[in-house]
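Consortium newsletter contribution from the modelling node. Members have asked for a concrete example of what our holo predictions look like. Here is one, prepared for the heme C complex that several groups have been discussing at recent meetings.
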Amino acid sequence: MKKIIVAATALLIGLSPIMADASPRGDLKKFRDYFTKMNPGVKFQDYANGIYALDENRRAEWENIEEFPPYEDGVDVGARLFKKYGVAKCFPNGGKGVRQNYPMWKGGKVHTLEGDLMACLKKNGVNTKKEKLKYGKGKFAGIAAYMTSTSKGNAIKVKINSSRKSMKVYNQGKRHFYGKRGQLNFSCADCHVYNHGMMARGNLLSPALGHTSHFPVWRRKWASKTAKKKGKAGPFDGFGTIQRRYGGCNKQVRAKPLKGKKGKQHPEYVALEYFHTYMSNGIKVNGPAVRQ
Ligand code: HEC
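And here is the predicted structure:
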């Protein structure tokens, strides 16, 4: 009955565009409410800080590291490459302070910031193979990290387009987030919604609210991986994008990370990023940041 009244009122005052995207809005409200009710002591903006919003001791350690951030040189290299490759031309506002608007629906598809960055490099004639610019990590993630750094403090503001095509992608991302997978048969939500704040094999599980606000992140683990392989790591080798993290979390449940075709991001991860980032709307960009 209540639903019918709401619908009728909405029609009466001409709110039909809002009704059309009622479902993402409803999803967002439920998602947010879940976390804010579970953790009454955590301030909304603190969700940008992942596990450090939940655990005081880990937070103190992390704040110490962030005083002399190990990613600073990597961001500087990213800034230099941003200029060298003419990235400013390809983005609104010269590519500065725009992270909060991605993923973005444009021209009938979802654009991630990293997807547009790769397209930009190619358009500008950069030989991405020769320059070793690959999605997810290294120098490429360094440029993305620089772009995030220019957006610090801007609240995430992803718009879910209400067209059927866009909603299909949104729902695909939502299904990935709530769908069980891998040998362990876990969904993203199992770890980062229903069990956030609990331990899983020695790791504290972060809340999914705020998840996308601080990427690319910098992890010692990733820097060491490159160092092991190549003898040494560059200042940007600790960086990984949100989609690199998706791959890592797929592996945690012994599912295969998804790889895109020929220099493209995997459409399933693009869909996931569309949904997952929208769920953090309102949280301020706070990256790059160090993570375990
Ligand atoms: C078996 C549990 C598990 C599952 C399932 C899982 N993750 Fe994770 N995830 C972790 C752990 C452990 C970490 C590292 C600690 C943390 O930050 O939560 C992590 C970290 C992350 C982070 C980084 C958080 C930050 O603050 O930097 C993101 C983002 C993330 N996961 C997203 C996902 C997504 C999306 C899925 C589904 C594809 C997923 N995870 C599935 C266990 C899991």
